[in-house]
Design a protein that fits this description.
With 196 residues, the protein is α+β, with helices and mostly antiparallel strands. The chain has six helices and four strands; from the N terminus they run αααβαβαβαβ.
Length: 196
Amino acid sequence: MPKKILLLCGFTILISAACHKAVPVTAKSVPTPPSPQAAPGPPPRPAVAASRPVAQTPTAQQASPRPATMTAQERETLNQRLAHLSDALFDYDKANIRPDALTTLSSDVNVVKGILSNYPAQKLLVVGGADERGSAEYNLALGDRRAKAAEQFLVSSGIPETQLTVVSYGKDRPICEEHNENCWQKNRRAAITAAP
């Protein structure tokens, strides 16, 4: 009988050990930082200090915003700065930016960024043009592709697309009216001007 009791006790211990739930081991508790309300605030100022006027510096929100319309002098300055930009020139019947046009547009980027930072409400036109050869419709589409290629370059260089507008004049507004290759090259262009 004692053997049976011993076996029964051993069996009971095994069953209770198997059914016992394991208690998870907890990590050391990290003290929580005091809440901001519990932190003591700065000592109160004496009554004399409160009566002194405090100089306030204007913040960006308090600064007067630049007016939406430009003055005549600002418009003249803007047009003078834009007049110094060089046109990006294109090959006959092409709209891809060639190396010399890439150099031109790269040098224009900083000027354009400066203009748009000074006049954030101003939009600029990227104008595409073509020479006199070909139909009006074809040259209008070609001028549009040239202007869009220049716009794409300017946007990839950090100019906000929202401040650029693309327009094509095709062959309608040439800057040179002679009938030779030298003149035609000047009209195959993308130029940056001020929007009205």
